[in-house]
Give the backbone structure.
Amino acid sequence: MLQEVVVSTSAPAPNTQSTGNGSILFHDIQSGASLASFKHTNAAKNCTALIPTREAQGGLMLAVQPDKALLNIYSFQKDQISQKFVLPERLSCVTIDRRGQFCAAGTPQGRIYLWEIASGIMYNSWEAHYRQVTVLRFTPDGEALLSGSEDSGISVWSVFRLLDDGVQNENPQVYAHLSDHTLPITDIACGFGPFPSCRVLSASTDHSVKIWDLSSKSLLTTFQFPHAVACIAWDLTERLFFAASTDGSIHQVNLFRTRANKSGGYVAEAIGGAGVNDVLLVRDDDSSTTKRRLISVGEPVTALSFSLTGALLLAGTALGNVHVYDVPSHQLLRTINAHPGPGLAVTHLTALLKPPDLVGHVQLGGDKDGGIPVLPILPFQRMREARPREAHEVTMMLPHARNSTHESVTTYSREELLRDWEFFVKPRLTTPTVENDALSAPPLDGRVTELADEVARLKSQLARAKGINDVMWETLTQTAAAQGKELAAPDQAHDSHEDAADERERKRGKTKA
């Protein structure tokens, strides 16, 4: 069955004297049960990135270590560190594009590095900001890289130009520089759509969240909050977003509103979009006509994320807890005490389908035993070199044959996929069982036969009704025609008598004359 899990990373909080080690944990989103644990990491905020399992290759997790120029690599198949990469300098944030091809990392000095994961080649390294890079994000199509910094600026870089060998000796030209914030950037969220036809959401410690349009390189709307915004989460449909603060408050902001029209109904319309002067205030006492839009967590919120379906909101706190809220009602469904260690705060939070090669949940071994090979990854280069780029040697694995045992773990048949999709998407009031499903869900072939019989029966009834209608119409027309003939006969006889009388009168007149 498809199973959604919560991946959370912890590290000692900045304002505590905790000396404990953080970890990366997997929990079931429905029950909160612990599924896997990966120790010996203290990745700070925006310092964890994941490559999911795909194409019969096991996924990886990358965690940047604080105060050290080290990058820990974890495989889903082992609960220990798989590799350690020595980096050119200490990093402050890291991100990976959706296809798992490139890795970008920022430094406290404002420099950004770009590596190819499969080959380890450093394709570019440049001075992007004059203060620490706090957050990096790829657009969904991987065509652009967004960087936020403590200098309050957001830069948009074209990945195509960063990879161009012809401009390796030049400082990359920025596509756009978004500079309306006044304090350090804390979080960035990218909307869907191909670059540059997509919108961007940015949060800052200046108590504001801004929406940008990359196609026009302009600011659309500013939302002003009562507290500094630490993290944001954007709905998949881009209808609303949540903004969390370290004081324990989470505000829901709807990007639409309903109004009454002239016909007495209601229509929905977008809000904002007026540009720099469009500032909307969000207060703690804000409420809509049906519900409050404020969630009081009671703990400093350090991470936010939506579930895969968008129906649940995940909130990580500075006390190591993960709270699961229902988005429509804001009801707290459950609390996962993910990182109970003293002084450990949740620094990364995301939801994904449980990897098929997760340690402890599938029997893995060598290729003979049907194990899933780990995605190849080579050590990242510490400096740019022209020779590796020219050779461009990439380690990769060819897809397995249809009868390979590897596909038995990562590939679904059509029937299994439909069954798991129904179990994952459709809510159930009771716990499903095999007996109940067999009794309540009729076979698909039987249902098709039943519907075909019903269609045939309805067609026969329609034909009978049409025949009766035709007979009634024919009888009615014949009766009307017969009645018309009967009425016409007396009139013709009367006319003939009148004509004869007139003829006799004319003859008498002539005789008298």
Remarks:
- Residues 444-512 form the longest helix (69 residues).
- The first strand starts at residue 4 and ends at 12.
- Helices lie at 159-163, 386-391, 407-410, 414-425, 434-440, 444-512.
